[in-house]
């Protein structure tokens, strides 16, 4: 979340989709209709839950694989990272 351009892109994409789906003037102009909120939110929430669960489990496995080395740096072991960093 350090890259401001990526943050702006994610925010812009979300706002653009919401505008295209729910602003009546744009619906008339583009010849579309509004999407029912459960059809818009439920599929996206399920993907959100899977992605967040995967990321949190990945971080847990990564942190359990950290071992301090003699040089003062952390040594990473396990299937999450490659062994090329030490």
Structural notes for this entry:
The mean pLDDT is 78. This protein is elongated. A two-stranded antiparallel ribbon has the order 1-2. The chain is 63% helix and 7% strand. It is built from three helices and two strands. It has 86 residues and is mainly α. It has helices spanning 4-22, 24-30, 37-64; strands at 66-68, 74-76. The two termini are 26 Å apart. The protein folds into two domains: 1-35; 36-86, no CATH class.
Keywords:
86 residues; single chain; mainly alpha; two-stranded antiparallel ribbon
Helix-strand blueprint:
Blueprint: H1 4-22, H2 24-30, H3 37-64, E1 66-68, E2 74-76
Count of helical stretches: 3
Which sheet architecture does the biggest sheet show? 2 strands, antiparallel
For the largest sheet, list the strands in their spatial order. Answer: 1-2
Whole-angstrom Rg = 21 Å
Q: Percentage of helical residues?
A: 55-70%
What's the domain count?
2
The residue ranges in which pLDDT falls below 50 over 5 or more consecutive positions are: none
The pLDDT mean sits at 78
Topology pattern, helix = H, strand = E? HHHEE
Beta-strand content bin: 5-15%
Describe the structure in brief.
The protein is mainly alpha-helical and 86 residues long. It has helices spanning 4-22, 24-30, 37-64, and strands spanning 66-68, 74-76.
